[in-house]
């Protein structure tokens, strides 16, 4: 079973779901409804977050380019 969170209200023969309601459905059926417009899947496990702030990324520095010597007669 998968749980979906309804984004819009939907009713049909034998069912009626309101926006904001969470519904348990078999996996394949839940995937059909969870299209991002009518409903979305509910995560059972908490989202993992880093314990501290992310370390600043640093790019490796390239060595400075040497200027080419002038060509030809001066």
Task: Walk me through the structure.
It is a single chain. The protein has one helix at residues 27-33, and strands at 2-6, 10-12, 15-17, 22-25, 39-41. It has one helix and five strands; from the N terminus they run ββββαβ. The longest helix has 7 residues, at 27-33. The protein starts with a strand and ends in a 33-residue tail after the last strand. Strands 4-1-5 form a three-stranded antiparallel beta sheet. It has a two-stranded antiparallel sheet with strand order 2-3.
Task: Please outline what is shown here.
The chain has 74 residues and is mainly beta. It is 9% helix and 24% strand.
Mean pLDDT: 84
- Uncertain segments: none
N→C terminal distance: 82 Å
- What string, H for helix and E for strand, traces the elements in order? EEEEHE
**What is the strand content?**
15-25%
Which descriptors apply to this entry?
mainly beta, 9% helix, two-stranded antiparallel ribbon, 5 strands, 74 residues
Topology:
Layout: E1 2-6, E2 10-12, E3 15-17, E4 22-25, H1 27-33, E5 39-41
Antiparallel strand pairs: 1-4, 1-5, 2-3
